[in-house]
Amino acid sequence: MAKAAVELFVVQGFDQTTGAQIAARAGMHERSFFRLFPDKRDVFFHSMETMQREAVAVIAGTPEGTSPVDAVVAAFGQRCEAIQRNRHAALVRQSVIAANPELRERDLTKHAELAASMAEALRERGAAEQAATLAAEVAMCVFRGALARWYGDLERQDLRTLFRDSFDELSSVLADGSRDQALPTTSRP
Question: What pLDDT digit, counting tens, does each position of 44-57 carry?
């Protein structure tokens, strides 16, 4: 179903494609389509639900004592590998998202939901509230940055390596900043 939707979005554009057209292309009845997907955006982002379940499973499966950061890095590492394996589909999907503000907004929402699910999985493993949220949110930002670099890289470097390098760069920046400068304190009234 998602493949049919993306094919039509590429050819016709997102706004010009209807749910009925997607259903017909996928060989299903329009009513069945709308029972499964409230609107055409949902079929496009259906894979995010799978990604969310997989990320939570990776976090839950990390060995006891794994730090929250290492657990989310493992989850995003698995996602990077999946994207890398389906490189062409990921690039086409991203071009459709980039061409449509409504899809860009939904993409951000879905990634925020993913980060929230990952944070919850970390809390279920015993991570403190703030540590779980920070680890998931920061890893999401690093992932999105690495993904943007990968999309812009004509040679298509290994996405997992870009993610890991981006995370290492963030760690370095944080370490340098904590040694070089203390943030000024402000007095509160």
Answer: 788 888 889 999 99
